[in-house]
Q: What sequence folds into this?
């Protein structure tokens, strides 16, 4: 069970208060009716709001909307909207929590995105389950019909080219996309793939405008984001926090040695450095924050995650297929106290060989994690090389599906 | 117009033909997959680069006006 504390850090924007799912009357009472204004004026509002994607890449929403709308006009094909709620990241729960508590906010956002881009077709991709979405949809009278699609839980299912291929009737595997999906996506139509949280923010920007949106966060990174916070011994929490908020307020740093910022494609940050950081769209990925207590081994945790990431490779691209299992095996060696031989150099070399050489960002994200582990846990690596480990608790910490 | 070599990594099977046809632009990594010089292909090499693209057994080698973003 995920606990939500929507109003601990700011007055809640996205998550229904009280942790109870908001039905349509509750939703409309809280936010008011969704206005359908002039698409161009709406687009200007989105530009002024500075809203960026909340799926991990933090790409400006305005620019994506414009390029999809333009591609639609240029090709004469109505664009397609794909709302991405396929949260493949095992440590993230924010998208499914949002869909559970505030489904209508996401569904509003889909309609706004369709109105702005001129889309006539929309899909909502979620993980297995979530039958309440159909009943939520049945209560609405939306101009653009929305189809709910269910994907099996795999790390790469939510990758945008994989999602587009799946919506078009293919397998949910990343593909080589040139031109990009925003120009040629679902059945070759211009396609807007947007994370469900992004769409929920979009629904609020359409209602309350850019100034309201910018009243949270920093001038450079306006607004708030949902974070999944992992602290050992506590329930996993989904919280909404403004950009710029000190990480120390979200994750207790006392007794910790490092924080994993941004999930399994993210970075390990030493605790002293984390104490100086604020919530930053550039490194927070899809909002996962996980604290590593000082009595645990960061190298062992990284080795577990890397094994999972190697197994989640779609196995389509040579460098990823060859590199990730080797990196994972090497990290297993580094995670155990004892002689390391050339293992550290091998990892560094393989990291360089997989980076930027795949159809999706799986190798790049994996390399980001590897490099941050090698620097953050550099001292521990030396200790392991001398045959020791400072950790006293070897119980696995980070959530990894079907591990054995 | 500047052209660059791009690889469809889902298609590439590591035949290695490209590295033989365009040795000054492409070498192979330790697993046999191409390591490509990312800078624009000089005008004098374009013709051979096109040839390498059309001769790739997996049709994984592409010549692009710009890198896909």
A:
């Amino acid at each position: 069970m995920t606990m939500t504390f929507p109003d601990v850090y700011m007055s809640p924007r996205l998550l229904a208060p009280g942790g109870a799912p908001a039905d349509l009357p509750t939703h409309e009472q809280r936010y008011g009716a969704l206005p359908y204004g002039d698409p161009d004026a709406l687009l200007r509002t989105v530009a002024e709001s500075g809203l960026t994607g909340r799926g991990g890449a933090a790409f400006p929403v305005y620019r994506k909307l414009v390029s999809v709308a333009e591609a639609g006009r240029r090709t004469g094909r109505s664009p397609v909207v794909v709302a991405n709620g396929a949260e493949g990241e095992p440590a993230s729960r924010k998208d499914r929590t949002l869909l559970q508590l505030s489904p209508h906010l996401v569904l509003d956002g889909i309609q706004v995105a369709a109105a702005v881009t001129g889309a006539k077709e929309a899909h909502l991709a979620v993980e297995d389950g979530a039958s309440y979405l159909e009943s939520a949809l049945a209560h609405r009278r939306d101009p653009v019909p929305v189809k709910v699609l269910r994907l099996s839980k795999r790390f790469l299912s939510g990758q945008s080219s994989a999602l587009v291929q799946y919506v078009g009737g293919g397998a949910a595997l990343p593909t080589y996309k040139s031109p990009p999906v925003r120009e040629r996506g679902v059945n070759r139509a211009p396609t807007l793939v947007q994370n469900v949280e992004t769409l929920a923010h979009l629904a609020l920007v359409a209602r309350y405008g850019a100034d309201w949106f910018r009243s949270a966060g920093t001038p450079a990174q306006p607004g708030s984001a949902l974070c999944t916070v992992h602290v050992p011994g506590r329930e996993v929490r989904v919280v909404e926090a403004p950009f710029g908020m000190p990480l120390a307020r979200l994750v207790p740093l006392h007794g910790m040695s490092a924080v994993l910022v941004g999930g399994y494609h993210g970075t390990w940050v030493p605790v002293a450095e984390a104490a100086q950081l604020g919530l930053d769209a550039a490194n927070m990925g899809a909002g996962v924050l996980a604290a590593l207590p000082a009595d645990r081994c960061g190298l062992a945790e990284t080795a577990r995650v890397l094994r999972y990431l190697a197994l989640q490779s779609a196995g389509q691209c040579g460098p990823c297929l060859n590199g990730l299992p080797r990196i994972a095996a090497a990290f297993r060696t580094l995670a155990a106290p004892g002689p390391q031989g050339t293992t550290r150099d091998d990892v560094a070399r393989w990291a360089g060989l997989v980076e930027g050489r795949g159809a999706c960002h799986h190798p790049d994200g994996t390399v980001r994690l590897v490099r941050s582990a090698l620097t953050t846990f550099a001292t521990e690596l030396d200790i392991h090389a001398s045959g020791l480990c400072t950790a006293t608790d070897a119980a696995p910490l980070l959530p990894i599906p079907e591990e054995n | 117009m500047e052209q660059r070599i791009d690889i469809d990594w889902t298609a590439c099977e590591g035949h290695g033909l490209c590295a033989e046809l365009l040795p000054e632009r492409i070498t192979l990594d330790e697993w046999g997959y191409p390591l490509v010089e990312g800078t624009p292909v000089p005008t004098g090499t374009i013709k051979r680069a096109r040839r390498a693209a059309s001769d790739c057994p997996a049709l994984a080698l592409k010549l692009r006006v710009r890198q896909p973003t």
